[in-house]
Amino acid sequence: MRINVARSSMPPFEEYCAEIRGLWDSRWLTNNGEKALALEAALKAYLQTPNVVLFSNGHLALEAAIRAMGLSGEVVTTPYTFASTTHALVRCGVTPVFADIRPDTYTIDPTEIEKKITERTTAIVPVHVYGSFCDVEAIAAIARKYHLKVLYDAAHAFGSTLNGQSAAAFGDAAMFSFHATKVFHTVEGGAVACKSDELAEALRLERNYGITGPETTVSVGGNAKMNEFQAAMGLCNLRHLDEEMAKRRCVVAVYRKRLAGAPGLTLCPENPCDNSAYFPVLFNGLSVTRDEAYARLAAQDIYARKYFYPITSAFECYAGRFNPDDTPVAKSVSEKILTLPLYADLSEGDANRICDIILA
Ligand SMILES: *Cc1c(COP(=O)(O)O)cnc(C)c1O
């Protein structure tokens, strides 16, 4: 059977049916319905944050946050991320300035951030890569020193904690993705968590055309609302999140046991507080290169992913605009990284088989 890098978790079918049953009576399918309000409340509690604004997907949540926070000019960010982070900035008329990443956690390097700050810099947009946290203290110190805003792309970090705090605790705002392939999902979906009530209100305006009342529209907002069927999926999946992450941890334990210390392979530092969202393996190229491993797995119908390759500054659509060589660590990591299949019901046998192929 084909093994993909991710497989969406599903709640029991009957549980989802029960969750959506009431929608046939209420006919309230979107616009702050009962399910969306319940999910916002549940996520505020889970993330320990005063405000959660739900969106139809993570990318539009990120664009809404960029606009609601008034980011402009230049923003220091990482090219070692999914297309969404860089595209959101560019689509909102902001210039991304790329800082290099740390070689151990693949998150943005605070000392590199500082080198990229100019008079035009308004914010830092870091990414908690693979669910492990950025150097949040150092980033907060830089932001204070230069009076910059911080917007975290926490798309990977739902369920991870740092000293007992969720990703919502850091920066002026944090964006989460609830895409079907993420640890917690609402099919498509996303959210922004923030401490400021004012920012939360601005995010709601971005989400629903800037409409504040039947006859008042105060800003040029878009439409990025989460609907009730998505929110119902979120309510169900949230109930099963802990068992989901526990099962993922078992797969990760197999990978670590088999691959740690293998010549030519580097694993991320072990962290019991991360959400086991991804399992990246860095191929140092001593025995077998990343591309060979990818091909050997694919030959067995196992699809790992070169995530993140290429770095966003090397995308065709940005040709001539950015120089991938400005961030040599990010470029080098992207050429050697492979994320292995990881999902709750990946069997121990399959995890071992994947290790056998990599170690062969
Ligand atoms: C998934 C993801 C996004 C975008 O989220 P969507 O919900 O798919 O729109 C943004 N950034 C990163 C790092 C992601 O992995």
From the spread of the alpha carbons, the general shape counts as globular
The tally of domains stands at: 2
Average residue pLDDT? 97
The computed structural class is alpha/beta
* Main beta sheet strand tally, sense and closure: 7 strands, mixed
Strand order in the largest sheet:
1-7-6-5-4-2-3
Which CATH class of the largest domain is shown?
Alpha Beta
The total count of strands amounts to 12
State the CATH architecture of the largest domain: 3-Layer(aba) Sandwich
Could you tell me the CATH topology label of the largest domain: Aspartate Aminotransferase, domain 2
Distance between the termini: 21 Å
Classify the helix fraction into a percent range: 25-40%
Task: Tell me the name of the CATH homologous superfamily of the largest domain.
Answer: Type I PLP-dependent aspartate aminotransferase-like (Major domain)
Q: Hetero groups bound?
A: pyridoxal-5'-phosphate
Q: What share of residues are in beta strands?
A: 5-15%
Order of helices and strands: HHHEHEHEHEHEEEHEEHHEEHHEH
Rg, alpha carbons = 21 Å
The poorly predicted ranges are: none
Can you count the helices?
13
